[in-house]
Amino acid sequence: MKLVSEVTVALKKSALSQLVDKFNESGCVLKSMSLYESTEYENAYVCELIYQHSSEFLNCVEILKNSDKFTFISTDSSLEKTLTGGLLEISGKLPFETPQDYEINVLGGAEIINDKIEKGLDDYCGIENMAANVCAVTDRGSKKKKLYQLYTIAERDSLIMKKFTAMNCIPLSFQYSQPEDCLRYLRNSAVGFKAMRILEVEDASLSFYSQLLDGFPAPLIIRELDELPLYVLSLVNKCVHKHRFNPDETNIGVLGVDNGVIRMTRLFLRSGFRRVLGYDGDENILLEFEGEDGLATTKENILRNADLIIIMKNNFTNQDLANMRPGQLVISMIKDSGADKDTLLNNGIREFIQGNTDDLTLIFPALLQGIIHAGLSYFDDTRLIELSEKIAKFMSQDYTFPELPESVLGMISDFIVLSSYPQN
Q1: Which of 120, 183, 327, 389 has the largest count of CB atoms under 10 Å?
Q2: Of 408, 302, 301, 310, residue with least CA distance to 353
Q3: Given pLDDT bands bounded at 50, 70 and 90, which one contains residue 206?
């Protein structure tokens, strides 16, 4: 992820290199610079900066404001102005600029499509090429901000879906009171889409997902139960192969248990790993975890005895990390886990792997396209395990994907389709 903003600053003509150094120190990269104003002793520049986190740009601005070598003038972001109203806008396939366009392309086009549908040519209907990115929140408390943020992620993922597949994709957002209401709404809405992807349903349980998958009328993938477990299993396969661990001798420990971890546990054990240990403060989720043959335990036991530790929640302290032993592997799926990578490595940790959930954007378009083309309703464990082995081979030694994601997407989609056919 990268962000772009502009800062206008004045400085003495001899201090330009020092300005660039200040940008770099704050974590910002100078993309472009244009002269804003010039006097005998000073020049003012509009500097376009690239950065990863908004805190880096804010820190840069504070440095400029507090410096006696620079005069801060203003900040601006043309990107922010463009984004007012969201990431998506609607446009048609055919020109719609003139009255004739309206008569022929819009009214006439709709008439032609309906004539084709009347003759049984359903491919002309937009539903056959439309998927939904679903986000839902409960009606308990004020949830406007949460729903708006989820909707924005759904917009982002809809853009990615369109970029890498031939399908259109739109956000489907709503609020619900009871799980039964949510299930009913999703089932009734499915008729309007070729496939659905659940980005997030707030407070959804494994029981909820089980009921949803049972006879759902459209192909369905779920970020929490399909995409995230597939990605983490791919990371695990890659690092186990890289460090030549034998799965049947490897204990996996997970700090933080949720619905996705419970699915992962089943995938780990079916992949041949020795055992899966889990720690969480929620006793109910741990009961479900143990229902999949996971072993609920303390975080101290996980940090001492697991060969591969997966951090899903920040539910430990730096003092807890003192229990770790040399030779362990660590995968963190949260950006600010509180685990200092350099300290752990200095204490003998074999490797610290920072997972990147943004990489899920390289997975879900192919999953959705593949599940449609293969005629599947959902992804079973066997297919996810086989697919994780394929994805792991595409990862580089630093666990990143190729710069050309089309190769990964094509491989995933083709494998799903081919694996759906009966084997001779």
Answers
A1: 183
A2: 310
A3: very high
CB contact at 8 A, 209 and 222? yes
- Sequence length of the chain is 424
Dist. CA 310–CA 101, nearest whole Å: 57
pLDDT number for residue 404 = 58
- The answer to whether 167 and 130 are in contact (CB under 8 A) is yes
Amino acid identity of residue 85, one-letter, is: G
- How does pLDDT run across 66-82, given as a tens digit for each residue? 988 899 999 988 778 78
The string of DSSP codes covering 153-198 is: HHHHHHHHHHHHSS-EEEEEEEEESSHHHHHHHHHHHGGG-SEEEE
pTM confidence score: 0.85
Distance CA 287, CA 280 (A): 11
* Angle CA 13–15–17, to nearest 5: 120
Q: Which residue type occupies 56?
A: E
pLDDT digits (tens, 9 = 90+) for 145-189: 999 999 999 999 999 999 888 899 999 999 999 999 999 999 999
